[in-house]
Each structure stands twice: as C-alpha cells, then as structure tokens.
C-alpha cells in the first residue's frame, strides 16, 4: 500500500482521453449538422427567388408567398401559448405546492405521459373529436361575440379552424411547460417559503412572494421551449387545420391562415421543380424564426438573472 | 401589545417521532427569554410550535396547550395564518426576499394585511421599522436596491425590520446571530435590548454569553439520551441559571462539561 502513495507524474489516463475526445466529437457533430442544415436550406431555397407565380400557389413573389405562412405560424403558436401557459403554471403549482404528495406524484407522471404522446395521435384527436365538439361553440361565438373581429365568422361548420389547431397545439406544449416549471417550483428554497409563511402569508400569497419570483427566469425559458415546439409542430396542425393561406385574425371561420410546417407537409408530395425550392425557402424562414426565438429566450433569462444578482 | 405565553404539557411530533416531550413553562411579556441546550434537543422545534410554523412540515403536529393572552393557540377555530401575523419570526439564516428591494421587503407583511397601503403610510412604516432595527441610517439612500445586496448582518436586521413592521405581539428568534460576525452580533444584541420594552421576545441561542447578556429568563432544554425526545430541564431567571442552577444537568451544560 505504502509504495503506491509515492508521487507519480500526472499522466492522463486513457479513459479520460477517450472520453474527452468523444465529447469534443459530439459537440462538433452538432455544429456540423446545424451548419449542414443551414447551408442546404439556403442553397435549395435560393432558386425560389426567381420562381414564377404559378409555382408559388398564385403568390406574386417569394415574399408574398412566405409572409402569410409566417403570420399563420406565429398566430397559431402565440394563441397556443396564451392558452397553455396559465394552464401549465396552474397544473405545475398544484403538483408542487397544493396536491398532497400521494396525489402529486401520479399527477406528475400523467403530465409527463402527455408529453410522450405522438403528434399524429393529437392530430387525429383534434380532427375527429375537438373540432367536431367545438363547432357549436364557434357558432355561439359568432352569434354573441361576432362584433369582436376575432370571432367575426362566418363560423366554420367543420370546426377545423386556426383556433382549434391552437387548442390542440396548446395541449401538446402544456406538458413541456408544466414539467419544467414544476421542477423549478419544487426547487424554491425552503428559507424563502418560510420567510413568507412566518409573515402570515396564505399558501397563494407564499407562492406569489417566494415561489414565482424565484422561478421567473425558469418560467420564461419553459414558455420559450414551448413556443419552439408550437412553431415547428407539423402533423397535428396539418391534420386539423383547413387552411387557405389567408392573412386574417378571424379565428373561427372556414378560411384560415396556414403555418409553414403544415404547408410543407401538405404541399411537398405534389410539388416539383422550383415549387420544392419555395417550400425549402419557407423552411429556412422557420429555421431562422426558431433560432431568433431561442436566442431571445436566452437573452431574457440572462438579463433577469443579472438584475437578480 | 406584548403578551405572555403559557405552555402546558406540550408534546411535539414529526410524524411518529416525538421530538419534544412534556414542556410546561410561562414566558413573561415584555422581556427576553432565552432557550439554550445541546444541538438536536428541540429548541427550534419548540420555538416553531409557538407561531404554528411547526405544522408547515408535512406530518408535523403538536399535542398539549399553548395559551397567549387567554386564547388557545391551537384551538379549532384559530387560523394559523392569523397567528403568524401576530407572532413574528426571525430565522437562523437571513432570508430577505431575493428579488425585492429593501423597501418592499420591509413592507411584505404589511401588504399582506392590507392590500391598499397609502404611500405616505408605507413610507412611515418603512422608516419606523428600519429605525427600530438600527438599519435606517445605513440603507436610507438605497431603499430601492435589492435586500440581497446587503451584508449578512444587515440582511438579518432587515429581516428583523420586516418582522416588526407589522407590530407583532411576540417576536421569535432562532439563533439570529449564528451566521454573523461579532460586530453584527453585537448590533443585534443591542437591538434586542431596545425591542424588549415593546415585545415579548423568545430567542434560541447556542452562545451562553449571549443568553447571559440579552435575556431575563433562560430555559435549558436537554436530551435524556440518543433517540429520546428533548425536554425542558429547568427554567429560571438568567442570573440564577448562570450562578446557581437548580439542576445538575444545567450546571454541567453551562460549565461546558458536555453539549
Ligand atoms: N423537519 C424535520 N423532520 C423530522 N425531524 C426533524 C425535523 N427537524 C428537526 N427534526 C428532529 O427534531 C429534533 C429536534 O431538532 P431541532 O428542533 O432542530 O433541535 P435544535 O434546534 O435544538 O438543534 C432532532 O432530533 C431533529 O433530528
Ligand atoms: Mg435549531
């Protein structure tokens, strides 16, 4: 034993070297893949700039082709988040701070399970169930709240509207936001929670004083991750939405904006030549939007962490 | 405003584990009562049962009686949230709300009590509480800075200001100086001296000299043995405890023979 304690030259072990090279390789692979995708999208998208209008679904040029799709993509995603965020935060709080442990655990598993359901299944459910059930609601909205442009109508008779698509999207992104925020809520320092309780805070007041401020930056990143998923979601939207590619804030009518991802999925099989290039160009735009959203999220989180420090 | 506290036959549990057994004592009003004893004998547990903070831990419960000013603290009609508004607490580690300014930290309790607090009233509470906590001079020019930016001792005085801002009847302190340097400790001890004319103060301390310096009465808690519940050995005026204690165990602890 004593002999082995003699000072040895610091020598890198083989295992360390192999592992460090493997991680470096993995890191590089991600960058290469990302660059390859960007280059492919750019090269294949370029020809679409000179595409004739008949290859662009009737649009005069690439910009008027892509912009309505960008509008639809953002509208559906933002609507989905507006619905999903309060719901997700509520469920996360129930799991982390309200439900007794015996109930909280299965509830948590259930939410995680929702996140694992394939989007085709959500699409089917949205198509065959949600849209049908919502049709009377849309008729009611048009009749009673029709003066609000959002519900101008005429109400869709199939229910396959942008609002239905957004609701299905909301249910898809909700588990992601719930899972992340739940973990953050659970990490609130006991010290801060007890500070609030000792002042005579009710449970909800304690959550407002201690839990939510602590979780602020985490909530932002969770919502941004949800936004990323909502922007890129393809199958569910393609199946649910009866899209005509218009630009409108009317959420319940038969003529709906389409999204970039759904448009690609629906048009690609029948497209040839420069029409394919146009689809790729729209893909590039989606790629950029997702990138910008991610960086914006990081920036927001970093800034709120700095002001807290 | 200040109230005395009567504790009788108090047993305190964590689930099935009996942590503190059979405590009976009277804590006088407008005076400082120190709780001393070896680690794990249940001083914090006992202190937290006095403002019903004990029960926020899942499974934690209490048997017996605590009466403050004729009212049973654990009576079925008593709302624990209401109790905690009347009995302030300062913790071992300073815990200002990290995202709040100094100003908002002081007002956190008052804002729970009354939703709409006029600005001049709020300013007045902040100045009065920070002055009582001997912190006003140091922070009056940076009230809108986060409380987290203060030194440990200042943070602890901020927490005291936050606790007294709502003018509680009783102030509970759990080793409020154990994370602080000697100068901050001395500042807090001075503060305790000043506060006792208005508040009933119960302070847990590991530091025998501190108990001797700040308190009128001292209660010595001990463990009968490993795994046994903590119990109250003796409660007497501090002068007597430190010069001529009734119990052998107290004397042994104070003269440092164990614990
Ligand atoms: N949250 C808890 N859950 C279970 N047991 C606890 C908890 N907190 C303290 N205890 C136990 O209660 C006893 C008293 O602890 P405590 O009141 O912290 O002692 P002291 O403050 O005198 O050091 C110890 O045996 C401790 O292990
Ligand atoms: Mg303790």
Describe the structure.
Chain A has 309 residues and is mainly α. Helices cover 73% and strands 0% of the residues of chain A. Chain A has a single domain (16-308), classed as MetI-like (MetI-like fold, Orthogonal Bundle), CATH 1.10.3720.10. Chain A is flat, with a radius of gyration of 25 Å. Chain A starts with 13 loop residues before the first helix and ends with a helix. The mean pLDDT of chain A is 87. Chain B is an alpha/beta fold and 259 residues long. In chain B, a hairpin with a 2-residue loop joins β1 (5-14) and β2 (17-27). In chain B, α3 packs across α4 and α6 (152-164) runs parallel beside α7 (182-195). Classes of the chains: A mainly alpha (309), B alpha/beta (259). The interface between A and B is medium-sized, with 20 and 30 residues. The complex binds adenosine-5'-diphosphate (ADP) and magnesium ion (MG). Adenosine-5'-diphosphate binds at residues 14, 17, 19, 37, 39-45, 57, 230 of chain B.
